[in-house]
Amino acid sequence: MSKTFVFLLALASLAVTTPVAPEDIQATVPIVSTFNFIDGKDLIQRDRARIHQLRSVGQQKKSAGGQNTPAYNQAVVHSALVGVGSPPTPYSLIIDTGSSNTWVGAEKAYNRTRTSKPTGSKVGVSYGSGSFDGDQFLDLVTISYKLTIPDQSIGVANKSKGFNGFDGILGIGPVGLTRGTLQPNRSEFVPTVTDNLFKSKKINYNSVAVSFVPTIGLDEEGQASGELTWGGVDYTKVEGKITYTPITRTFPADRYWGIDQKLTYGKSVPIMQSSAGIVDTGTTLTYIASDAFARYKNATGSEYDEDTGLLAIPCAKFGSLNNLHFYINGQKFELSPDAQAWPRIFNEAIGGTNDKVYLVIADIGDVTGTGLDFINGMGFLQRFYTVYDTQKRRVGISRTPHTFRKVNVPGGRC
């Protein structure tokens, strides 16, 4: 059985069967987790390379565009199967809310078909710890059996680095990040997959929502770990209401899915006053400004662990850990003690030991005031449903059935 036929069978199974509202969505697409373990220090180093690239936009004039966009650096990589061409060739693409170009060719070569149209432009994106350069094509892109996009702009890598095991990136960030990625027309924008789905009336609302579940164990390798929903909200994944907050006005966070938030710990210990940062699927940990990180370290009684580069507490003290509160547009979202813990089943994979609990809150490397003072990475996103609303320039966040689920330190015991 050919891989293309298997892909087409998979597309046929993606019809929406659960009630959704208020917008008319057309399909949900499963997200697959792949484990890509590196030691803790290397994980942080790669995350910080991505953060540096994110911030480098702030060193340019706003008119210069966002050609330096972020990288994927995750220990657990989340991807989706996307078809390109006719018949569609399936590509495993990393889902990235922090970049906006969609491209293929890192592992599996681009298969030119009757729908492939070279544009004559060159395209390239630097991702901090990875990059690609190649040619720009227009081609038929198949997201699901209902969502097909003729003449979608697709980058085809001639060379790439940092994407072992994956074919490229599915960029679902704001379209402004594509400016400066094309040669010779550096001022040109590259329409995103989400924008073109809306423009072609395949979806009735210009948004994409992302749902994850917490990482539990090695048996989840290659299994569905969430979903992408284009054009609306799947309320079967939501608990309570969705809080929408406008894109921050603070540069450079305003280039991305940037929001304003403040943090407190426990009953009311102040950690970070209202600051600008981003929500990002491509960052493994959740990062906060250095001064806020020092307050969090002191409040939790944790210590820096030389072996992993993470904060750690003895198992015996885990029960004293409190919730970390994220205040977003007046609504409080709690990151429980279990959600603040690195999955203990993977302690050894990051160079740790089983008698400690390692925390997923890390130091961003600069004090508050840079315009990018936090990154709500996968440690946050696995506990909350998020909506990336291009139409109204806002981000939606809600609790899910997994927000308070105990998976990393079941029952609060080591």
Automatic annotation (TrEMBL):
<feature type="domain" description="Peptidase A1">
    <location>
        <begin position="78"/>
        <end position="398"/>
    </location>
</feature>
<keyword id="KW-0732">Signal</keyword>
<dbReference type="InterPro" id="IPR034164">
    <property type="entry name" value="Pepsin-like_dom"/>
</dbReference>
<keyword id="KW-0064">Aspartyl protease</keyword>
<feature type="active site">
    <location>
        <position position="96"/>
    </location>
</feature>
<dbReference type="InterPro" id="IPR001969">
    <property type="entry name" value="Aspartic_peptidase_AS"/>
</dbReference>
<keyword id="KW-0645">Protease</keyword>
<feature type="active site">
    <location>
        <position position="280"/>
    </location>
</feature>
<dbReference type="InterPro" id="IPR001461">
    <property type="entry name" value="Aspartic_peptidase_A1"/>
</dbReference>
<dbReference type="Pfam" id="PF00026">
    <property type="entry name" value="Asp"/>
</dbReference>
<feature type="signal peptide">
    <location>
        <begin position="1"/>
        <end position="22"/>
    </location>
</feature>
<dbReference type="GO" id="GO:0006508">
    <property type="term" value="P:proteolysis"/>
</dbReference>
<keyword id="KW-0378">Hydrolase</keyword>
<dbReference type="InterPro" id="IPR021109">
    <property type="entry name" value="Peptidase_aspartic_dom_sf"/>
</dbReference>
<dbReference type="GO" id="GO:0004190">
    <property type="term" value="F:aspartic-type endopeptidase activity"/>
</dbReference>
<dbReference type="InterPro" id="IPR033121">
    <property type="entry name" value="PEPTIDASE_A1"/>
</dbReference>
<protein>
    <submittedName>
        <fullName>Acid protease</fullName>
    </submittedName>
</protein>
<comment type="similarity">
    <text>Belongs to the peptidase A1 family.</text>
</comment>
